[in-house]
Fold Sulfur carrier protein FdhD.
Amino acid sequence: MAKPDASPQIASAYAYAELGDGRAQHAALAEECALAISYNDLNQAVMMVSPHHLEDFAVGFSLGNGLISSIDDIYDIQLRGLGDSREARLEVSSRAFWAIKQQRRQLAGSSGCGLCGVDALEQALPALQALPGAPLPALQHLSGLRERIGEQQQLARHSGALHAALFIDAAGEIRLCREDIGRHNALDKLIGALARERIDTRGGFALVTSRCSLELLHKAVRAGLGTLVSLSAPTALTVEWARRHRLNLIHLPHHSTPRVYSPAPDEEDRP
């Protein structure tokens, strides 16, 4: 297994000129690269990602998409390439590799046969095992959290245009922050970092700075996270699935009290 990632490097500044003003100015821009992911030399996907914490991403992508069931299924990760073209080559257990090949086989076929459309729906709306349920986080752990998040986002402070996913532990302390151009990628990186560092997630929660969509819920449930907090409101389908799978789902608005969408409030408490 690869060693933990080093601290991300800040992007270089690029020159630009404001329209109507030819004077050169400089601004840092968010970086991205194409990352090819393979398992036992079988190509699986190419993702556009921020080129930081790529080992975390490879692990989190594997767990969050249900390609493996445990980090112990990964025997080794090799990163190759530089610049805008990179590879993550994972060596996985025979059991995990068989499951990956089965999933690929389910998605193969003619686009006109109709059956592959059903398979695609099963991938978009997968059968997930419900969580055991977890207590809601203490209100004081959410108080002032937006400001604390800004302090953790080193890359976004420098260049902007980046999403973040963070883990706040049972004591209310921010333990991890991962950033990426993609909101799904940011959560994958967080899930991977939690798994690689063997952090106990009980009593804590994950937070995403982006819109909370169903795909993010899938990843949180597969990773066994009991609570997911988002800075933007969730979609209706995400709320329904969160309640069905016993995931605590909380929206943290700008200027009001946190809103708990899952678990559902008692009937008598509803307007």
